[in-house]
Amino acid sequence: MRALTIPMLLAVLLVAATCYESHESMESHEYLNPFINRRRANDFIQAGSRLEAISQERIRERHKAPQERQREICEDYYPCELYAFRHGYAAAYRHYFGRRRTK
């Protein structure tokens, strides 16, 4: 009986230690209402910086890196895209579009 009591006591202590829920997580105000209204959500971003960020994004869209333009050209041409899966987009672009043939 004593041999069974000690493992049972250890099992109860182990369950109590792992299943203990602290009340610290319930103390925060977000526990009851995790969502905030739109005005409070947007308070930390000023309108000027938001507009500036949008314009910077538009500028980046207009001026793409040469590698990105080459990759988009290669993605539009299916044989080039298949070649790129095996050898990479730079090699595929050079293979299909690297040298232009003129008469």
What does this structure look like?
The structure is a single chain. The protein is mainly α and 103 residues long. It has a domain of 38 residues. 69% of the residues lie in helices and 0% in strands. It has seven helices and no strands. The chain starts with a helix and ends in a 6-residue tail after the last helix.
Percent in strands: under 5%
* Rg on CA atoms, Å: 31 Å
Helix content: 55-70%
Give the termini separation. Answer: 99 Å
- How many strand units? 0
Topology readout:
Layout: H1 2-18, H2 24-27, H3 38-41, H4 47-62, H5 66-76, H6 78-87, H7 89-97
Helix pairs in contact: 5-7, 6-7
Distinctive features:
103 residues; mainly alpha; 69% helix
Give a quick rundown of the structure.
Keywords: Chondrogenesis, Developmental protein, Differentiation, Disulfide bond, Gamma-carboxyglutamic acid, Osteogenesis, Phosphoprotein, Secreted, Signal. It contains 7 helices and no strands.
